[in-house]
From TrEMBL:
Protein family according to the UniProt entry: Belongs to the GHMP kinase family. GalK subfamily.
Pfam families per the UniProt record, alphabetical: GalKase_gal_bdg, GHMP_kinases_C, GHMP_kinases_N
UniProt protein name: Galactokinase
Domain GHMP kinase N-terminal: start-end pairs: 91-178
Length: 382
């Protein structure tokens, strides 16, 4: 696609990739300075790019999703670097360009072609994958290597400024720092990254996409975030990461409204579940890990209220299959995907159950795939 669109030959190009993610546990804890435990998918966004002719300030972008539309902006025109404009996906690239410039790195004019097998709008972080792939391409152009957490923070700023989504750091950080064969325990306060082995051939991770598209930039996500911050303020702590259930339950009656109390209870208990889950995974105690995933789902559904009937149905289907340890909603919610931890030999029955029981009730098929933990953002070809 690069060559047909831009006419430059292959020898001049750089290729980079960055993965989507699935989160095993730790939902809505990242913007509360807490812990998360995602893994990088083996599904990636790939950018093939090349610098434009010396002195050019033009960036041209094309995506395999609509190869006839070439997006273009001029690096020397501040107006063209503002958020907005079509196609929407180009904002993630433009945003990363602006972050590099803001930090004083020279960004040359360039051409780039995007292709991806990360499902879009499906709760597996296709946007973070595009941001981290762009960041990796720009690192090559600038001849620098950034800390994964730095690149991730810039990607998070792109979400805040260019897409109006006040997200946490999880999606960008796992896309930047994922490691093959490992789930990654991420401390969203210190940015400490602890790989937890996930290479036991007797267990599998299965992702089921409800095919219900969600848009997190609606009011729900910011509202949840605001409720968490209000609860932390009432508790007198910087973030809910610093609170315990004992503290929450010691608040005088009426300090928090019921919903805010429920949001805080989800975050406090979820944070604790991440720590216990990581321990269980280390010990290969999948029964314990699975139960924690089930509890996490219940908490997301009942306390955080981010699930939807389609997702609850997928979770129930998974939990009823023999050999399944646990299942839950993964990602921001309001649709998207579930994640299931199961015995390797339960995978066929699980796929079958999703097929037989989802579509007849919901009216559309779920897109189901199993995955191992893949690598984070990387250069494929220089
Ligand atoms: C979305 C956000 F982008 C993440 O930062 C995180 O908050 C997640 O929802 C919920 O855990 O993916």
């Amino acid at each position: 696609m690069f060559e047909t669109t831009f006419g430059q030959n292959d020898a001049q190009t750089v290729a980079v990739a960055a993965p989507g993610r699935v989160n095993l546990i730790g939902e809505h804890t990242d913007y509360n300075d807490g812990f998360v435990l995602p893994l990088a998918l083996q599904k990636n966004t790939v950018l093939v790019g090349a610098k434009a002719a010396e002195g050019s300030t033009i960036v041209r972008l094309v995506s395999e999703m609509s190869p006839e539309d070439v997006a273009q902006f001029d690096l020397s025109k501040p107006d063209e670097l503002k958020p907005g404009g079509e196609p929407e996906w180009a904002n993630y690239v433009k945003g990363m360009v602006v972050m590099f410039q803001r930090q004083g790195y020279a960004v040359p004019g360039f051409d780039a072609a995007v292709s991806s097998d990360v499902p879009t709008g499906g709760g597996v972080s296709s946007s973070a994958a595009l941001e981290m792939a762009t960041g990796t391409l720009l690192e090559v152009f600038a001849d620098i290597t950034l800390e994964p957490s730095t690149k991730a923070k810039w990607g998070q700023s792109v979400e805040h400024e260019f897409v109006n989504l006040p997200c946490g750091i999880m999606d960008q950080l796992i896309s930047a720092a994922g490691q093959e064969g490992h789930a990654m325990m991420l401390d969203c306060r210190s940015f400490e990254i602890k790989p937890v082995p996930l290479d036991d051939p007797s267990v599998k991770i299965v992702v089921a996409n409800s095919m219900v598209k969600h848009s997190l930039s609606g009011s729900e996500y910011p509202e949840r975030r605001a409720q968490c911050y209000a609860a932390a303020k009432a508790l007198g702590v910087p973030h809910l990461r610093d609170a315990t259930m004992k503290m929450l339950d010691a608040l005088p009656e009426g300090t928090l409204d019921q919903k805010t109390y429920m949001r805080a209870r989800h975050v406090i208990t979820e944070n604790d579940r991440v720590v216990r889950f990581a321990q269980a995974l280390q010990e290969r105690d999948y029964i314990k890990a699975g139960l924690l995933m089930n509890d996490s789902h219940t908490s997301q559904r009942d306390d955080y209220e981010v699930s939807v009937p389609e997702i609850d149905h997928l979770v129930r289907i998974a939990q009823s299959v023999e050999g399944v340890y646990g299942a839950r909603l993964t990602g921001g919610g309001f649709g998207g995907c579930t994640v299931t931890l199961c015995q390797e030999n339960a995978v066929p029955a699980l796929f079958e159950a999703f097929k037989k029981e989802y579509e007849p009730t919901i009216g559309k098929e779920a897109l189901v795939f199993d995955t191992e933990a893949g690598p984070g953002a990387r250069v494929l070809k220089l």
